[in-house]
Amino acid sequence: MRRLLFSIVLSLISFIAYAANKPTVYLLATGGTIAGTASSQTSTTYKAGSLTAEQIIASVPGLDNLANIKYEQVYNKDSGNVTLSDWLKLANEVNKVINDPNVSAVVVTHGTDTLEETAYFLDLVIKTKKPIIIVGAMRPATAISADGPLNLYNAVAVAINPKSIGRGVMVVMNDGIYDGRDVTKTNTTNVDTFQSPNTGPIGHVVMGKVNYHDNGRANAYDAPFNISNIKSLPSVAVVYENVGVDTEMLDNILKTKNLKGIVIAGVGDGNIPDYEKDFLINARKKGIVIVRSSRVGSGEVSYDYNNLDTTYDLIAGDDLNPQKARILLMLSLLTTNDVKQIQKNFYTY
Ligand code: ASP
């Protein structure tokens, strides 16, 4: 009896010591398909943001062997419904938990539709070298071969890996590790949807085994964007170019109250039709800052293509897709509307 008691106490002590040595990962749940449930295992319609953080964590076998998981439900929605004030709330939450010395890393569960935008936003505003990983799923938790549990397991494995330190915000999906700046969703339904068309993945993670391909690019953890005292972000529109744009529609955009910036998803190398000349001139007269991006899907926008930037005082969006160029423009506009300075930001972050 005494021997049994002794061995129970011993295993209890070693369990406590083991738990104390494990890193602590803070999971912030925001909804999405990873928290989605459907009425059948093969249904293509389901309700995103149905399961709680606690339920998601409980569905991943072995997660507690990797790390001590703390969690919080920041919101629980389809990521198509995420608002700019949700972003501020999430960023402030990440800032709060990441600054706890007992927390090694943060994992955010998120819907995939706007995941790439949240990843880039957080990359620009969170000041830490600790890993921040965003993860989602393409199939709801109730589906055959749901991808959420392994994605989350891999996300936590990446979060606690020492080689993940100082790489900024990363996205872990379908065994790939992607830089939050470069990644984009490329397929509406396939689990292999997330890609970085310009750079490729920065690493892979297979059943929790992490393998980086390089040392990672310089990241934005010290970017000069501070949202801690910000109640709202500047209004920035995205204009998608196509053949024969109705310029009256463009003129109406300029009537938008408080519009501070426009990102043009141009054709080809961020090209803008000649007949939009007055739109560009009028927008600049109103102080609206304009960034040229491209609707093409990969590649960078060359500075002053067709003399557009020097003629109309525009900014070349480098290799950011239009939705990400909008984020960098919004954050830049918090402190400046100087075109030269904002152009510099586009070449830096
Ligand atoms: N509509 C879902 C969302 O973004 C899609 C997903 O998570 O895969 O929340």
From TrEMBL:
Keyword DNA repair on entry: no
Name of the protein: Asparaginase
Protein residues bound to substrate: 79, 112-113
Domain L-asparaginase N-terminal residues, every copy: 25-215
SMART domains: Asparaginase
Signal peptide (from-to): 1-19
Top-level taxonomy: Bacteria, Pseudomonadati, Pseudomonadota, Betaproteobacteria, Neisseriales
Organism in which the protein naturally occurs: Aquella oligotrophica
Alphabetized UniProt keyword annotations: Hydrolase, Signal
